[in-house]
Amino acid sequence: MDYIRKIPGESKPIPAEAVQKGEVYIAYSDCYTCHKEDKDSVGPAFKDIAERYPVQQAYIDMLAQKVINGGKGSWGHATMSAHPKVSREEARFMVSYILSLKKNQ
Ligand code: HEC
Q: 40 alpha carbon to ligand 1 midpoint, in Å?
């Protein structure tokens, strides 16, 4: 995904507990119908999302909000469905798991 601009910034460590919880919440939601870990599907690969965003609270909050609201325009033309039943806390754990797939983390 060369055309996707990587956002510069330092990454903070992600607590192992948040990663584990996020992995479970994702497994019980519908995320894998549109996302794969390391390949594009309907949505971008989780590893590409991890490479794009620094691990910082502001990005975690922004991405968690996008999971809940759905949306398009950051990666291409496809739209992510909204997930109104996912709480903010659950969405933050999901995003923590996704960002933990960053290389050299
Ligand atoms: C209906 C298909 C679909 C489902 C289901 C889906 N996604 Fe997505 N997701 C997408 C698409 C398409 C994009 C790219 C949106 C864009 O270009 O702005 C995306 C983007 C993302 C992003 C990056 C957002 C950004 O602005 O960079 C994250 C994080 C994400 N999804 C997490 C999740 C999680 C967690 C779930 C499960 C709760 C989920 N997605 C379920 C299709 C989906």
A: 11
Q: Kindly state whether residue 2 falls inside one of the protein's structural domains.
A: no
Report pTM: 0.96
Q: Angle at which helices 88-99 and 16-28 pack, to 10 degrees?
A: 110
Residue with CA at minimum distance from ligand 1 atom 6: 31
67 lines ligand 1 (CB under 6 A): yes
Render pLDDT for 42-71 as a digit per residue (tens, 0 to 9): 999 999 999 999 999 999 999 999 999 999
Query: Which is the closest atom of ligand 1 to the Cα of 72?
Result: 18
The Cα–Cα gap between 103 and 2 comes to 16
| Residue 21 counted as domain residue | yes
